[in-house]
Every structure is written in structure tokens, then in C-alpha cells.
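[Automated response] Your request has been received and processed.

Submitted sequence:
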Amino acid sequence: MKKLISVLTSTLLFGSAIGQVCIKDTNMNSLKNWDRKYFEKPLNNPFIFYIIHGNFTADVNISTSKYRSAGLPNGIKLMKYSPGKHPEVVKSFLEGYVWTNFKKENTGLSNQISSSKECFIISGEIADTSSLNYLRDIVGVITYLLDNGGVSVYDPQAFTFFGKTDWAEKIFNPNGSVPRNHVMILFSEENGMKWYHTRGLRKFGRPDLSIHNVPEKYEEQVTDLIGRFIEYLGFGGIIPDGQKIRMKSLPEGMWCKNEGDLEDPDFNNKHVEIYWK
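Generated structure:
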């Protein structure tokens, strides 16, 4: 997925930027804070990257109370692409393994996406802080776009396409960050066992997770472990090198190590490798 980075670079250079997102009502006191209960200190800057396909109305004019958003956070850009503004970008994400699988699983929505003439890209990097209000605000902007011509949201960091209903149920309606709904747990066959890893934690400024050589008898327990770590990291926690794993359902001696870099194509992120012993 190195293409993710290269396409982002080109879109920032050549996209049609929406200079401001207009907020109709400005009573910010009505917004619920998305606090990070495990946050003690900054780690990595959260990186945001979403693509919203559709055929949109001209203005971006958001109600704070309806969409629970204070607008775009500092450092985040909203770019629009259309037949008259680099139309090749609209189709550029509709190829490769993730898109091919999605078309097989959801023919109706994939046809709507393929027929879209426009897309917005929300992207950028922001400072790691003690709240997820930046994500709350971005979720509100995306939900507005879906209500005004959008048909889908693609999160390439998590290899996930959302339709309108799916996005509302998993991302917007909970009115909280729900880290597990923003992160994908993947697995693949490996030497008669499985490799489990995540994608999507970079939007929280945290490393993704990886554990190799998972035998069948521990698959459910490892999935549970990863889910717990997703919540911990999403809400601001940091896993130090040498962190021991203490779960009665898993063998003793398991531990963690921070590895990789942002250029790793398996994650597009750093990651925490979980070792058996």
C-alpha cells in the first residue's frame, strides 16, 4: 500500500482545496468531549486519510448540533475532485486487492461508487493529544458529506469501505470514538498457523499490532487480546518494549516489542510485535 502515500502526496499538490468548512451554529459547548482515558504523554502524530465518493452539492455548510463537529481540525485538509478537477483521482482508489474483494461482497454499493463522478479526500496529520475531539470533528464532516451526495467512505488505512448505513451504525451513531470500529483485524495463513495483525491505529497516533504463528487453539484468545489492545491504544495508551502479556487463556511468557516504521507496506505504520516467548 505504498500507493496510499504517493497518491496522498499528489492529491495535496493538485487537488481543489475547500478553504473553509462553514459551521452554521457555533455553540461548541454542546459538543461531547471524546476523552482518552489512558493518555499520559504524546507518542506519534495521528494521520488521517479518508475518501468519500459521490455526487455532491456545492457548499459544505455544517450544523454543529446535528453533526457533532467543530469543523476541520488544524492540519487537516478537505480536497475535492470532479470531472473538471483531476478526474483520474476519483477512480484511483478503485483498484487492487481491497477493491476487488469489496466488489464481490457488495455489488450494489460498489456499482454506486464506480458511478460516482466526484470525491472528497480528508487528510492530514495533527498533534497527539489527550482527546479524540479531532476524530469526532472529522466523523461529523464525513457524515455531512454522506448526507449531501456521498455514497461511501473508504478508509484505506483500515482496508474498509463503509456504506451510509454502516458508517452511521458503527462510526457516527455511537457518539464516541469506538476504536475497534476504526481498526481492521486481518489474518493470513502462515506455516500451518496464522498471522494476525491490524491496520488503522495510525489514525490514533499509535502503532498497529502483529502476532505470528498463532495455532488454531489460540485464535479466539488472540483476537480478544488484539481487541483489548486496540481499545487501550485508541484511548491513548502506550505499550512499552518488554510489556508482558497476562491472560489466563494464553500461555505464559508472551511479550511485546515496538518495531517497524511508517514505510512498512503491511501496516503503513509502526507496529508492536507480540512474541510467544
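Summary generated for your ticket: The first helix runs from residue 2 to 14. Confidence is low (pLDDT under 50) at residues 5-14.
If you did not submit this request, please reply to this message.
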